[in-house]
Amino acid sequence: MLVLSRKRMESVVVGEPDGVDCLLKVIVLEIKAGAVRLGFEADSSVPVHRTEIWEEIRAKGQTPEPT
Fold it and tell me: pLDDT tens-digit profile of 20-33?
């Protein structure tokens, strides 16, 4: 597990450093009352799901659709 500290409006990028596009960009939008609000930027062909939804999709043996 990679653990990073980020402040509001800082981000993390997932992808090959020598590639043109990143696969996923995660931005910290807000931190308050013990909750962190995140924003996700990804190509429309990359499915992004909350873990519990992803687990339901996998349990049903379905292929996740991009959201």
Answer: 777 889 999 999 99
